[in-house]
Amino acid sequence: MALLSLDSIDLIYQTEKSETEAVSNLSFTVDEGEFIALVGPSGCGKTTLLSMIAGLMKPTRGSVTIDGEPVSPSSGTVGYMLQRDNLFEWRTIEANVLLGLSVQKKLTDESRQYALGMLDKYGLGEFRSAYPQELSGGMRQRAALIRTLAFKPRLLLLDEPFSAVDFQTRMTVCDDVHSIIKNENKTALLVTHDISEAVSMADKVIVLTRRPATVKKIFTLDIDAPTPLKRRESPRFSEWFDRIWKEVSHD
Question: Residues 190, 191, 194, 195: is their CA dihedral positive or negative?
Fold first, then answer.
């Protein structure tokens, strides 16, 4: 059984005067351990889909399930990483990483050790007492990811998490985030406008149509390289980029 299943999803926004169909008859599944990228024309509803998968919005019709159960924002099965790291500048990195656990009353000796262990594991242990402004953009994103993973979510949602950093930093951060997700054996769904980012990171790329969004095509990538940077060096990279670009740019 798939970890995540979207089955015949419709979403209609209604006002007093009109209704707008945002998503129409959309279905796809994500298996455990897969890294999936969602791409499509601007405004097609990619972030809206993430909100439904996180349980923050309900579809008008259809179902969204994780492990066969309807999604719920309180279940703790979904972790959500936003465009900005949202680290509090007046809190240390350790305090930032533990904040979510504390707020949700899930901060135990075990969860603390797990979160701080990941700081050590991924090169941030010596910066526990530092403040966010003392870290590079890439290190801040690593800390934000560890804060999200501290809950041990089954599914990780990434909403353009690299858009707030410059291009050179983005390349390194993509490698860092991809490495952590794969090392922790997490299932991830990335929303991005950057097709090269999708091709460099994902096992599969799902192309959405213009609004109302539905699945136009699903590509299973076969680039034999261990990291996003190495993938970009592969001859297959440009081939996949061109194929996906054509699907995204043509109705």
Answer: positive
Alpha-carbon distance 217 to 200, whole Å? Answer: 18
pLDDT tens track for 151-182? 899 999 999 888 767 777 788 889 999 999 99
Q: Please answer whether residues 29 and 206 qualify as being in contact, where contact means their C-beta atoms are separated by less than 8 angstroms.
A: no
**How do beta strands 35-39 and 187-191 pair?**
parallel
What residues have CB less than 8 Å from 19, skipping those under 6 apart?
12, 13
Give the integer Cα–Cα distance in Å for 173 and 188: 16
Q: Distance (Å, rounded) from C-alpha 21 to C-alpha 174?
A: 33
Q: Which tokens sit at 118?
A: 């990941």
Rounded Cα distance between 78 and 76, Å, is: 6
Q: Other CB atoms closer than 10 Å to residue 55's CB: what's the count?
A: 17
Please tell me the pTM assigned to this model: 0.91
Give the span between the Cα atoms of 38 and 40, in whole angstroms: 7
Taking the C-alpha atoms of residue 217 and residue 240, their distance in angstroms, rounded to an integer, is: 13
DSSP assignment letter at 15: -
Q: Is 27 left (phi over 0), alpha (psi -120 to 50) or beta?
A: beta
Q: What are phi and psi of 23, to 5 degrees?
A: -135, 135
Q: 166: which residues sit within 8 A by CB, 6+ positions away?
A: 137
